[in-house]
Amino acid sequence: MGGGALSRCHRHRRRTVRNLKYATILEDEPAVDYIVRGDAEAAFPKLLDAIAGRASFDEVPNLVGRGPDGRPAMSRFEHIDIEAHPSPRFAGAHRTVPYESMRGCPFTCKYCSFPAASPKWRFKSAEKIVHDWQSYADANGAGLIAALDSTFTIPPARMRKLLDLLPGVRVPWYSFSRADNINTPEMVQRLEAAHCRGLAIGFESMCDKTLLAMDKKVTADENRRAYDLLNNSSLLVNGSFIVGYPGETPEDFDITHRFLAHELRGRFSLSVFSVIDETMPVWAEAGTYGLVETDDGWEHCGMNRATAVELLGRTVQATRWQNEDAVMITWQVDYATPLASGLGLTGNRRVEKLVERLTFLPRDIGTDADAAVRVRDMLQELETMGVRTGAAEASATA
């Protein structure tokens, strides 16, 4: 950018952050001088040179600072070639290795700012991924690759190639996927053969009206098909859902409520729609849905945030006590999976279910004699699976 706009920013101790919401940050945080937007690999080396006085700030790509008028001033965008760029390397042993195989996202879900954060979709080849994963296994003893892309199972041609190559690598992995990518028994079998251990899928809703409003480009039937296929496999499924998307009414959400409370098998998370991100495409339709921010959060033509919070609590509690096979994702993320290696997928899910029920029983059920009977029954069932309380374990070893 011309005129030295970036170089005329503050000359005191510089604070740089990397965030999409650059305008808000620059307005609210006077201590922040620069924000890196986009590929940091292209920006940081030149930024460090500029801070050290070896280069001009105007030469740094992907940088946002304050222009002469105090408004955000952005330098040129520069994207790295992630196929040619060296993948990260780690020193020493690592049981789990995080992995990024793409930047950006080709989809346009209206609740998501992923495309705005990295507007150019790029992805590594299947061959590079296989080479990287084998290197992590050899150099770091990796026992699990956590593929953290928005959707690892696209593009389809790359995924087919990966499913051809990964069986020979013999490194377990976990990734995010779309529901419509899981569409045949053969696909699930190939995932198992490729050492996939589980998938996180943003189902978001079981109501076609809501999915259409989200521009999810997936139907409720495709969501259900993916669940049915995966639940007959050895893969761990983490499904996420949203309550309160603009335009959704309590009656619309009831379809998702009934699915979670009575049909779902496996792990799930349920979140209240959030408007904290001003870059979400849904804001372009704020007038259509009457979407506004309020002192309590938000409201739209379907419900307000308080109603969504109430619906979430009602659904989570109903699923906890009415569905024997659905487990809410809460404390599990801080522990290794599976919790008990000898119990298999179904046994581990049952352990998680009982621990969840024990945790919330005083709040949901109470502390009377009937609740005490439930506690004893659940503790006895856990003991049959080799899970004991700390007190019982101490007594057994005394």
- N-C termini distance: 73 Å
Give the strand order of the largest sheet, numbering strands 1, 2, ... along the chain. Answer: 5-8-9-10-11-12-15
Contiguous low-pLDDT stretches (5 residues minimum) are 1-19
Subunit organisation of the chains: single chain
Describe the structure.
The chain is α/β, with parallel strands linked by helices. The chain contains 14 helices and 15 strands. The protein has helices at residues 22-28, 40-51, 114-117, 126-140, 156-165, 185-193, 208-214, 220-231, 250-262, 286-289, 305-322, 344-364, 369-384, 390-397; strands spanning 16-18, 34-36, 63-66, 72-74, 96-99, 102-103, 122-123, 144-147, 173-177, 196-204, 236-243, 266-272, 292-294, 297-299, 326-328. The strands form four sheets. A seven-stranded parallel sheet has the order 5-8-9-10-11-12-15. A four-stranded mixed sheet has the order 1-2-3-4, sandwiched between helices. The longest helix is centred in the last third of the chain and has 21 residues, at 344-364. The radius of gyration is 24 Å and the shape is globular. Mean pLDDT is 89; it is low at 1-19.
Key words describing this protein structure:
single chain; 398 residues; alpha/beta; seven-stranded parallel sheet; four-stranded mixed sheet; 14 helices; 16% strand; globular; disordered N terminus
